[in-house]
Amino acid sequence: SRNITLRLFYFYTMPIQHIVLFDGNERNNLLPLTATRAVADLRIGILTIKEKWEKYLNVKVDILTHDYLQPKYTYEAKDNAVFINASVLPTDDLLVAIEKIDNEMVIKNDATIIALRTNNLIYSLADLYNVIDKLHSKTIQLSNSPINFPWDIFTVNGQEIKNDIKLLGLKPNPEKLSSTNTLLGNEIYIEDGASCECAILNTTNGPVYLGKDSEVMEGCTVRGPFALGEHATLKMQTKIYGDTTVGPHCKVGGEVSNSVLFGYSNKGHDGFIGNSVIGEWCNLGADTNNSNLKNNYGKVKAYNYPSKDFINTGLQFCGLIMGDHAKSSINTMFNTGTVVGVCANVFGEGFHPKFVTDFAWGNDAIFELEKAYEVAQRVMERRQINLSETDKNILKYIFDNKQQIR
User: Fold this and answer.
1) CA within 20 to 30 Å of 402's CA: 101, 182, 222, 332, which one?
2) Could you tell me the pTM of the whole model?
């Protein structure tokens, strides 16, 4: 009720013409996940960041991203617009802060730009940052931190599943499941068309959400918080630990712990992934495993694109970060804190490098762009989706600029 009151207050007292989610400086730290999408398109919990804001404010929002990605998103330059950093998730205190923004003002949290309001017509990110430099600023404190790095996604995922259930206004409905299932607790949320038979669902530590037309096959064991996206599948005897999201149209088997699969990706067989983020259109071959804990139990380092070096994640548990359209062969072993780039193909004996570049073919060759198009088209056709010219242009941009990263 407090959320509803705040939102009504916001819209009646502050008639904003236009709300835009923009890519902040955090975007480069979120590579390779943001190489093929705007920050607002990242999935955390059940929803993407864009979907969270639209549900929270009950309005459609635009996305302002880098020039090569912009054709993928709706954006129109208008005056009297509020721009919100897409790496910041919606909260009550942020909504109050945005409501209090004066015209031609930017609010910051430490050095992070959080939001701004301007009458200037903004046509690109470059325009936006030129305007920001001229605005007067105000510092605020937020109750939650921005999504700064890929590992922040799985770190907050369990709480975001809970937040999204509230945001969606869902009510528990375990009665929709048949008596073949074993239920521990009743915090179970079943969308229309979801199928679940002969499974164990444990909501002692958090909710279980089964999206529209999803399927949980026989013998699966699931601990919440867990979210299964629409048309996604847990294959027989899959083991799911808490704080995990399997996004729309994914197929998952084996063992998964505290991980997020964005959508349209497959981990269809036995093998373990933990404390990981997997992009879209990825395929993990049978018995692919990742380490998520160092032998010395120390903090994990992972590759960071802007610094072109490995940085300390500050985490004891950190597994695999994989960009869109990447693949691993059967029996692939990923070391702790491995980062795999867009359209990378990982195969061969033993552990692989902790950083696998975009369009890598094995350890020492390049996956040619035309071949990458062909494979992506075949993969996407299986889900009745075509590789668009926009998709091709994005992949070409990444391919043409990969040498800067390699």
Assistant:
1) 332
2) 0.94
